[in-house]
Amino acid sequence: MDAVVERMALQAAALLRGCERIAVICLLRRGAPLAERITTLMVERHGMAPPLRLDIKVKRYADDLALLHPETQLLEDPAHAALDLQGRSVLVVDDVLYTGHSLLRVLGYLSRWSPAEVRVAVLADRGVLRLPLRADVVGLRLDVAPTDVIECNVPPYEPSWRIELLQPERGAGAEG
Q1: According to a count of CB atoms within 10 Å of the terminal CB, is the N or C end of the chain lower?
Q2: With 0-12 CB in 10 A as exposed, 13-18 as middle and 19+ as buried, what is 71?
Q3: DSSP-assigned letters across all residues of 127-173
């Protein structure tokens, strides 16, 4: 998994090369450590200036993909009221890209600040988008059955970087 994250950082750095004002924004919770790792690698290995880092709380699905919020929940941080993303190149980072509804909600939220561009990086793309969106940086694309669950294990929430395929209808799990 370290090689996957390093490749993501390389791809993100290539997309953002030459941009002077960059913001890396993660979708909490597991997007935060992934965004930190990608940001650290972009700075340390690819010579980029440290970007602005922000976290956004977004929730739509439970871990088992049960729908929790039909209208994707985005909790605005009062500290974002004075946020200046105008003209910035933004990299939005999340662990899993599922249907695209959460991502669409975040893009709508960020659009109010008129960023110069918005790029998306995800550790795993399930390949089941329902909206005309895509990720610019994808760690792994995993085309799985609709009932299967992709679970990204991300330190510090889990002991190591790992992607698990959970198959609740079959009662089995496989690591990737």
Answers
A1: C
A2: exposed
A3: S---SS---SEEEEE----TT-EEEEE-TTTSSS-EEEEEETTTTEE
DSSP assignment of 113-125: T--SEEEEEEEEE
Q: For the residues of 86-111, what is the DSSP string, one character each?
A: TT-EEEEEEEEE-SSHHHHHHHHHHH
Tell the residue number behind the tokens 């399930």, with chain if given: 126
- Distance from C-alpha of 63 to C-alpha of 68, rounded to nearest angstrom: 10
What pLDDT does 37 receive?
A: 93
Instruction: Mark the ranges of the chain whose per-residue pLDDT is less than 70.
Output: 60-69, 73, 170-176
What was the pLDDT predicted at 170? 66
Question: What does residue 70 show for φ and ψ, rounded to 5 degrees?
Answer: -55, -35
The model carries a pTM of 0.86
> How many other CB atoms are there within 10 angstroms of residue 148's CB atom?
19
pLDDT tens per residue across span 34-59: 999 999 999 999 999 999 999 998 87
d(C-alpha 38, C-alpha 170), whole Å: 34
Round to the nearest angstrom and report the end-to-end CA distance of the chain. Answer: 9
Q: b/e map of 87-110 (b: 16 or more CB within 10 Å)?
A: ebbbbbbbbbbbbbbbbebbbebb
